[in-house]
Amino acid sequence: MQVPNTSEQKANKLAFLDGFRGLACVYVVLYHFWFELSIAYSSILTQNIKSYFRFLNFGNCSVAAFIAISGYCLMLSTVRSSSDTLKNGWREFLIRRCRRILPGYYVCLLLGIVLMNGSDVLHKSLLFQNAIPVDMFSGVISHLLLIHNINQNWVFNINPPLWSVAVEWQIYFMYAFVMMPLYSRFKANSLLLSGAALSVVLFAISRLPIAFSNKFFWPHSWFVFIFALAAYAAWYNYRVAIKGMSDAARLMFVSAILAAFCLLSVLFFTRDDKWLEHHNYIVELLSGGISIGVMVLCIDAILGNKKSFLVGFLSLPFLVFLGKISYSIYLYHCFVMAVVIFLVMKYLGAGFLSVFATLSLALSLVVLLSYFSYKYVERPFMRV
Protein backbone atom coordinates (compact mmCIF):
# COMPACT_ATOMS: atom_id res chain seq x y z
CA MET A 1 0.00 0.00 0.00
CA GLN A 2 1.47 3.33 -1.02
CA VAL A 3 1.34 5.56 2.02
CA PRO A 4 3.75 8.25 3.24
CA ASN A 5 6.64 7.03 5.37
CA THR A 6 6.30 9.34 8.34
CA SER A 7 3.53 10.96 10.34
CA GLU A 8 4.82 14.39 9.35
CA GLN A 9 4.70 13.55 5.66
CA LYS A 10 1.18 12.20 6.05
CA ALA A 11 0.06 15.34 7.82
CA ASN A 12 1.60 17.57 5.13
CA LYS A 13 0.01 15.64 2.29
CA LEU A 14 -3.40 15.66 3.95
CA ALA A 15 -3.23 19.32 4.98
CA PHE A 16 -5.81 20.07 2.28
CA LEU A 17 -8.44 18.43 4.53
CA ASP A 18 -7.82 21.11 7.16
CA GLY A 19 -7.92 23.71 4.41
CA PHE A 20 -11.24 22.34 3.17
CA ARG A 21 -12.58 22.46 6.71
CA GLY A 22 -11.33 26.03 7.02
CA LEU A 23 -13.08 27.05 3.80
CA ALA A 24 -16.36 25.51 4.97
CA CYS A 25 -15.97 27.29 8.30
CA VAL A 26 -15.45 30.65 6.58
CA TYR A 27 -18.70 30.18 4.70
CA VAL A 28 -20.82 29.24 7.72
CA VAL A 29 -19.42 32.22 9.64
CA LEU A 30 -20.18 34.58 6.75
CA TYR A 31 -23.67 33.08 6.55
CA HIS A 32 -24.43 33.94 10.18
CA PHE A 33 -22.76 37.33 9.86
CA TRP A 34 -24.79 38.19 6.76
CA PHE A 35 -28.00 36.98 8.40
CA GLU A 36 -27.47 39.41 11.28
CA LEU A 37 -26.07 42.26 9.20
CA SER A 38 -28.76 42.15 6.51
CA ILE A 39 -31.43 42.78 9.14
CA ALA A 40 -29.52 44.99 11.57
CA TYR A 41 -28.51 47.30 8.70
CA SER A 42 -31.60 46.82 6.55
CA SER A 43 -32.12 50.60 6.40
CA ILE A 44 -28.99 51.09 4.28
CA LEU A 45 -28.85 47.78 2.40
CA THR A 46 -31.00 47.97 -0.72
CA GLN A 47 -32.71 44.97 -2.24
CA ASN A 48 -30.13 44.96 -5.02
CA ILE A 49 -27.27 44.78 -2.53
CA LYS A 50 -29.01 41.96 -0.68
CA SER A 51 -29.51 40.04 -3.93
CA TYR A 52 -25.76 40.19 -4.63
CA PHE A 53 -25.10 38.41 -1.35
CA ARG A 54 -27.87 35.84 -1.64
CA PHE A 55 -25.23 33.14 -2.04
CA LEU A 56 -24.52 33.59 1.68
CA ASN A 57 -28.01 32.41 2.66
CA PHE A 58 -27.25 28.69 2.73
CA GLY A 59 -25.12 27.98 5.78
CA ASN A 60 -26.29 24.38 6.13
CA CYS A 61 -24.31 23.57 2.98
CA SER A 62 -21.18 24.07 5.08
CA VAL A 63 -22.53 21.83 7.82
CA ALA A 64 -23.03 19.10 5.20
CA ALA A 65 -19.40 19.64 4.15
CA PHE A 66 -18.24 19.34 7.78
CA ILE A 67 -20.09 16.03 8.11
CA ALA A 68 -18.54 14.74 4.88
CA ILE A 69 -15.02 15.75 5.93
CA SER A 70 -15.54 14.10 9.32
CA GLY A 71 -16.75 10.83 7.80
CA TYR A 72 -13.85 10.75 5.36
CA CYS A 73 -11.18 11.57 7.95
CA LEU A 74 -12.43 9.10 10.56
CA MET A 75 -12.37 6.27 8.03
CA LEU A 76 -8.77 7.01 7.03
CA SER A 77 -7.19 5.31 10.05
CA THR A 78 -8.94 2.08 9.09
CA VAL A 79 -8.47 2.04 5.33
CA ARG A 80 -4.82 3.13 5.49
CA SER A 81 -4.02 0.10 7.63
CA SER A 82 -4.44 -3.61 7.03
CA SER A 83 -7.35 -3.74 9.48
CA ASP A 84 -11.07 -3.58 8.82
CA THR A 85 -11.92 -2.41 12.34
CA LEU A 86 -11.67 0.79 14.33
CA LYS A 87 -8.10 1.52 15.38
CA ASN A 88 -7.66 0.12 18.93
CA GLY A 89 -11.39 -0.64 19.15
CA TRP A 90 -14.54 1.35 19.79
CA ARG A 91 -13.56 2.39 23.33
CA GLU A 92 -10.40 4.12 22.17
CA PHE A 93 -12.29 5.66 19.26
CA LEU A 94 -14.91 7.20 21.57
CA ILE A 95 -12.25 8.35 24.04
CA ARG A 96 -10.46 10.17 21.22
CA ARG A 97 -13.75 11.74 20.11
CA CYS A 98 -14.48 12.84 23.68
CA ARG A 99 -11.08 14.50 23.97
CA ARG A 100 -11.55 16.24 20.66
CA ILE A 101 -15.15 17.44 21.05
CA LEU A 102 -16.11 17.81 24.70
CA PRO A 103 -13.56 20.22 26.30
CA GLY A 104 -14.17 23.04 23.82
CA TYR A 105 -17.88 22.31 23.73
CA TYR A 106 -18.36 22.49 27.51
CA VAL A 107 -16.31 25.68 27.85
CA CYS A 108 -18.42 27.27 25.12
CA LEU A 109 -21.62 26.00 26.74
CA LEU A 110 -20.63 27.50 30.10
CA LEU A 111 -19.83 30.82 28.44
CA GLY A 112 -23.20 30.75 26.69
CA ILE A 113 -25.11 30.14 29.91
CA VAL A 114 -23.25 33.00 31.63
CA LEU A 115 -23.80 35.42 28.74
CA MET A 116 -27.46 34.53 28.29
CA ASN A 117 -28.18 35.08 31.98
CA GLY A 118 -25.73 37.87 32.81
CA SER A 119 -26.42 40.31 29.99
CA ASP A 120 -29.20 41.28 27.62
CA VAL A 121 -26.81 41.85 24.68
CA LEU A 122 -27.46 38.41 23.19
CA HIS A 123 -31.20 38.81 23.74
CA LYS A 124 -31.17 41.68 21.24
CA SER A 125 -29.41 39.65 18.57
CA LEU A 126 -31.42 38.05 15.77
CA LEU A 127 -28.99 35.14 15.80
CA PHE A 128 -30.25 34.28 19.28
CA GLN A 129 -33.95 34.95 18.73
CA ASN A 130 -34.68 31.21 19.11
CA ALA A 131 -32.16 30.74 21.93
CA ILE A 132 -34.21 32.48 24.59
CA PRO A 133 -35.54 32.04 27.14
CA VAL A 134 -32.88 29.62 28.36
CA ASP A 135 -34.43 26.55 29.93
CA MET A 136 -32.14 26.22 32.93
CA PHE A 137 -33.18 22.62 33.57
CA SER A 138 -34.10 20.58 30.52
CA GLY A 139 -32.32 22.93 28.12
CA VAL A 140 -29.03 22.84 30.01
CA ILE A 141 -29.24 19.12 30.83
CA SER A 142 -29.96 18.23 27.21
CA HIS A 143 -26.96 20.31 26.10
CA LEU A 144 -24.72 18.65 28.67
CA LEU A 145 -25.75 15.25 27.30
CA LEU A 146 -25.54 16.46 23.67
CA ILE A 147 -29.12 15.42 22.94
CA HIS A 148 -30.57 18.93 22.57
CA ASN A 149 -31.06 18.39 18.85
CA ILE A 150 -33.92 15.93 19.41
CA ASN A 151 -36.44 18.46 20.76
CA GLN A 152 -37.64 21.66 19.14
CA ASN A 153 -37.66 23.45 22.50
CA TRP A 154 -33.96 22.72 23.10
CA VAL A 155 -32.35 22.60 19.68
CA PHE A 156 -31.46 26.31 19.37
CA ASN A 157 -31.32 27.08 23.09
CA ILE A 158 -28.22 28.83 24.54
CA ASN A 159 -26.07 28.81 21.37
CA PRO A 160 -27.90 27.96 18.12
CA PRO A 161 -24.96 26.47 16.12
CA LEU A 162 -24.48 23.76 18.76
CA TRP A 163 -27.31 21.70 17.23
CA SER A 164 -24.92 20.33 14.61
CA VAL A 165 -22.33 19.37 17.24
CA ALA A 166 -24.96 17.14 18.84
CA VAL A 167 -25.88 15.65 15.46
CA GLU A 168 -22.27 14.80 14.65
CA TRP A 169 -21.69 13.46 18.18
CA GLN A 170 -24.56 11.02 17.78
CA ILE A 171 -23.32 9.98 14.34
CA TYR A 172 -20.04 8.92 16.00
CA PHE A 173 -21.95 6.33 18.00
CA MET A 174 -23.79 5.10 14.92
CA TYR A 175 -20.44 4.81 13.19
CA ALA A 176 -18.81 2.90 16.05
CA PHE A 177 -21.69 0.54 16.87
CA VAL A 178 -23.52 0.07 13.56
CA MET A 179 -21.53 1.09 10.50
CA MET A 180 -18.09 -0.25 11.44
CA PRO A 181 -19.23 -3.64 12.81
CA LEU A 182 -21.18 -4.18 9.58
CA TYR A 183 -18.21 -2.99 7.53
CA SER A 184 -15.90 -5.42 9.34
CA ARG A 185 -18.18 -8.32 8.49
CA PHE A 186 -19.79 -7.40 5.17
CA LYS A 187 -17.27 -4.90 3.74
CA ALA A 188 -17.74 -1.51 2.14
CA ASN A 189 -21.22 -1.70 0.64
CA SER A 190 -22.61 -2.12 4.15
CA LEU A 191 -21.48 1.45 4.91
CA LEU A 192 -23.84 2.81 2.28
CA LEU A 193 -26.69 0.50 3.23
CA SER A 194 -26.42 1.13 6.97
CA GLY A 195 -26.04 4.89 6.47
CA ALA A 196 -29.11 5.00 4.23
CA ALA A 197 -31.12 2.79 6.60
CA LEU A 198 -30.26 4.89 9.66
CA SER A 199 -31.18 8.08 7.80
CA VAL A 200 -34.56 6.67 6.76
CA VAL A 201 -35.33 5.33 10.24
CA LEU A 202 -34.48 8.63 11.94
CA PHE A 203 -36.50 10.55 9.37
CA ALA A 204 -39.49 8.22 9.79
CA ILE A 205 -39.41 8.37 13.60
CA SER A 206 -39.38 12.17 13.49
CA ARG A 207 -42.55 12.08 11.39
CA LEU A 208 -44.55 9.83 13.71
CA PRO A 209 -47.59 11.59 15.24
CA ILE A 210 -46.42 10.85 18.79
CA ALA A 211 -42.99 12.31 18.01
CA PHE A 212 -44.47 15.38 16.33
CA SER A 213 -46.87 16.06 19.21
CA ASN A 214 -43.97 15.90 21.70
CA LYS A 215 -41.79 18.16 19.54
CA PHE A 216 -39.33 15.32 18.95
CA PHE A 217 -37.29 15.36 15.78
CA TRP A 218 -33.83 14.41 14.55
CA PRO A 219 -32.83 17.27 12.24
CA HIS A 220 -31.15 16.61 8.92
CA SER A 221 -31.22 12.82 9.21
CA TRP A 222 -29.62 12.58 5.75
CA PHE A 223 -26.36 13.75 7.35
CA VAL A 224 -25.91 10.15 8.49
CA PHE A 225 -25.91 9.01 4.87
CA ILE A 226 -23.50 11.81 3.89
CA PHE A 227 -21.15 10.65 6.67
CA ALA A 228 -21.41 7.02 5.51
CA LEU A 229 -20.90 7.97 1.86
CA ALA A 230 -17.76 9.91 2.81
CA ALA A 231 -16.43 6.90 4.72
CA TYR A 232 -17.12 4.77 1.65
CA ALA A 233 -15.22 7.30 -0.48
CA ALA A 234 -12.18 6.97 1.79
CA TRP A 235 -12.37 3.19 1.35
CA TYR A 236 -12.55 3.64 -2.42
CA ASN A 237 -9.48 5.88 -2.51
CA TYR A 238 -7.27 3.68 -0.34
CA ARG A 239 -8.52 0.18 -1.05
CA VAL A 240 -9.72 0.30 -4.68
CA ALA A 241 -7.90 3.19 -6.38
CA ILE A 242 -4.72 3.15 -4.29
CA LYS A 243 -2.57 3.65 -7.39
CA GLY A 244 -4.87 6.32 -8.75
CA MET A 245 -8.16 6.23 -10.59
CA SER A 246 -8.50 5.38 -14.23
CA ASP A 247 -9.11 8.26 -16.62
CA ALA A 248 -12.70 7.09 -17.07
CA ALA A 249 -13.35 7.02 -13.32
CA ARG A 250 -11.76 10.43 -12.88
CA LEU A 251 -13.89 11.86 -15.68
CA MET A 252 -16.98 10.37 -14.03
CA PHE A 253 -16.18 12.06 -10.71
CA VAL A 254 -15.45 15.41 -12.33
CA SER A 255 -18.66 15.22 -14.36
CA ALA A 256 -20.71 14.30 -11.29
CA ILE A 257 -19.25 17.18 -9.27
CA LEU A 258 -19.88 19.68 -12.06
CA ALA A 259 -23.43 18.40 -12.59
CA ALA A 260 -24.20 18.64 -8.86
CA PHE A 261 -22.69 22.12 -8.68
CA CYS A 262 -24.70 23.29 -11.70
CA LEU A 263 -27.91 21.87 -10.25
CA LEU A 264 -27.20 23.53 -6.91
CA SER A 265 -26.55 26.85 -8.65
CA VAL A 266 -29.77 26.58 -10.65
CA LEU A 267 -31.75 25.91 -7.47
CA PHE A 268 -30.13 28.85 -5.66
CA PHE A 269 -30.98 31.30 -8.43
CA THR A 270 -34.39 29.99 -9.52
CA ARG A 271 -35.99 29.07 -6.19
CA ASP A 272 -36.83 31.34 -3.31
CA ASP A 273 -35.42 30.88 0.19
CA LYS A 274 -38.67 29.37 1.49
CA TRP A 275 -38.61 26.62 -1.15
CA LEU A 276 -34.95 25.89 -0.48
CA GLU A 277 -35.55 25.70 3.26
CA HIS A 278 -38.45 23.29 2.75
CA HIS A 279 -36.33 21.14 0.41
CA ASN A 280 -33.09 21.49 2.38
CA TYR A 281 -32.37 17.78 2.03
CA ILE A 282 -31.78 18.30 -1.72
CA VAL A 283 -29.40 21.20 -1.15
CA GLU A 284 -27.49 19.46 1.63
CA LEU A 285 -27.18 16.10 -0.12
CA LEU A 286 -25.82 17.88 -3.19
CA SER A 287 -23.41 19.90 -1.03
CA GLY A 288 -22.25 16.77 0.78
CA GLY A 289 -21.82 14.94 -2.51
CA ILE A 290 -19.74 17.76 -3.99
CA SER A 291 -17.55 17.83 -0.86
CA ILE A 292 -16.97 14.08 -1.08
CA GLY A 293 -16.15 14.31 -4.78
CA VAL A 294 -13.59 17.05 -4.11
CA MET A 295 -11.87 14.93 -1.44
CA VAL A 296 -11.79 11.88 -3.72
CA LEU A 297 -10.14 13.88 -6.52
CA CYS A 298 -7.62 15.46 -4.14
CA ILE A 299 -6.58 12.13 -2.64
CA ASP A 300 -6.40 10.62 -6.11
CA ALA A 301 -3.95 13.35 -7.13
CA ILE A 302 -1.87 12.79 -3.98
CA LEU A 303 -1.74 9.01 -4.39
CA GLY A 304 -0.83 9.39 -8.05
CA ASN A 305 1.78 12.10 -7.31
CA LYS A 306 -0.01 14.46 -9.67
CA LYS A 307 -0.20 18.22 -9.44
CA SER A 308 -3.64 19.45 -8.47
CA PHE A 309 -5.02 22.97 -8.30
CA LEU A 310 -7.57 21.82 -5.71
CA VAL A 311 -4.91 20.33 -3.43
CA GLY A 312 -2.73 23.41 -3.82
CA PHE A 313 -5.55 25.84 -3.11
CA LEU A 314 -6.94 23.93 -0.11
CA SER A 315 -3.41 23.55 1.27
CA LEU A 316 -2.86 27.31 1.46
CA PRO A 317 -1.40 28.04 4.93
CA PHE A 318 -4.15 30.51 5.81
CA LEU A 319 -6.92 28.00 5.04
CA VAL A 320 -5.07 25.22 6.86
CA PHE A 321 -4.71 27.49 9.90
CA LEU A 322 -8.42 28.30 9.83
CA GLY A 323 -9.17 24.59 9.50
CA LYS A 324 -7.19 23.77 12.62
CA ILE A 325 -9.12 26.31 14.69
CA SER A 326 -12.41 25.81 12.81
CA TYR A 327 -14.13 23.98 15.68
CA SER A 328 -13.59 26.91 18.04
CA ILE A 329 -14.59 29.36 15.31
CA TYR A 330 -17.83 27.47 14.89
CA LEU A 331 -18.48 27.41 18.64
CA TYR A 332 -17.86 31.10 19.35
CA HIS A 333 -18.57 33.13 16.21
CA CYS A 334 -22.23 33.89 17.00
CA PHE A 335 -21.36 35.22 20.46
CA VAL A 336 -18.72 37.54 19.03
CA MET A 337 -20.95 38.73 16.20
CA ALA A 338 -23.83 39.58 18.53
CA VAL A 339 -21.64 41.58 20.92
CA VAL A 340 -19.79 43.44 18.15
CA ILE A 341 -23.00 44.41 16.34
CA PHE A 342 -24.50 45.67 19.60
CA LEU A 343 -21.46 47.85 20.36
CA VAL A 344 -21.01 49.16 16.80
CA MET A 345 -24.69 50.03 16.44
CA LYS A 346 -24.64 51.73 19.83
CA TYR A 347 -21.61 53.94 19.16
CA LEU A 348 -21.53 54.32 15.35
CA GLY A 349 -25.15 53.85 14.36
CA ALA A 350 -26.25 52.34 11.05
CA GLY A 351 -24.05 53.16 8.07
CA PHE A 352 -21.63 51.59 5.63
CA LEU A 353 -18.80 52.47 8.02
CA SER A 354 -20.61 50.42 10.65
CA VAL A 355 -20.90 47.45 8.30
CA PHE A 356 -17.18 47.57 7.56
CA ALA A 357 -16.29 48.03 11.24
CA THR A 358 -18.54 45.16 12.25
CA LEU A 359 -17.12 42.71 9.73
CA SER A 360 -13.46 43.57 10.29
CA LEU A 361 -13.70 43.70 14.08
CA ALA A 362 -15.88 40.61 14.43
CA LEU A 363 -13.80 38.45 12.09
CA SER A 364 -10.58 39.50 13.80
CA LEU A 365 -11.95 38.79 17.27
CA VAL A 366 -13.41 35.43 16.21
CA VAL A 367 -10.07 34.26 14.83
CA LEU A 368 -8.17 35.56 17.87
CA LEU A 369 -10.54 34.00 20.39
CA SER A 370 -10.64 30.73 18.46
CA TYR A 371 -6.85 30.53 18.29
CA PHE A 372 -6.55 30.83 22.06
CA SER A 373 -9.38 28.34 22.54
CA TYR A 374 -7.64 25.87 20.23
CA LYS A 375 -4.27 26.37 21.89
CA TYR A 376 -5.33 26.30 25.53
CA VAL A 377 -8.57 24.29 25.55
CA GLU A 378 -8.52 21.90 22.59
CA ARG A 379 -4.87 20.97 22.03
CA PRO A 380 -3.97 19.97 25.60
CA PHE A 381 -6.65 17.26 25.51
CA MET A 382 -5.70 16.17 21.99
CA ARG A 383 -2.16 15.44 23.20
CA VAL A 384 -3.23 13.22 26.09
From TrEMBL:
Q: Which GO terms describe its biological process?
A: polysaccharide biosynthetic process
Example GO molecular function term?
Answer: acyltransferase activity, transferring groups other than amino-acyl groups
- Taking every annotated instance into account, which residue ranges of this chain make up the domain Acyltransferase? 15-368
List membrane-spanning regions.
Answer: 14-35, 55-79, 100-118, 162-183, 190-210, 216-236, 248-269, 281-304, 351-374
Keywords noted in UniProt: Membrane, Transmembrane, Transmembrane helix
The organism's place on the tree of life at top rank: Bacteria
Which Pfam families does this one have?
Acyl_transf_3 (PF01757)
Q: Which GO terms describe its cellular component?
A: membrane
Q: What is this protein called?
A: Peptidoglycan/LPS O-acetylase OafA/YrhL
Taxonomy, top ranks, is: Bacteria, Bacillati, Armatimonadota, Armatimonadia, Armatimonadales
